[in-house]
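Severity: low
Component: inverse-folding endpoint
Summary: output formatting inconsistent between runs
Steps to reproduce: submit the following structure tokens with default settings.
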């Protein structure tokens, strides 16, 4: 179990929520941060 992986996963979740609220059409996380 990697704590870093957990942080990244959490960041993705938060990012997706914010992106959905702001843009109503979220881009894949990987498209921006990949």
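Observed output (run 2 of 3):
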């Amino acid at each position: 179990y990697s704590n870093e992986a957990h942080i990244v996963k959490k960041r993705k979740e938060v990012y997706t929520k914010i992106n959905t609220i702001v843009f109503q059409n979220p881009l894949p996380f990987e498209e921006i941060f990949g």
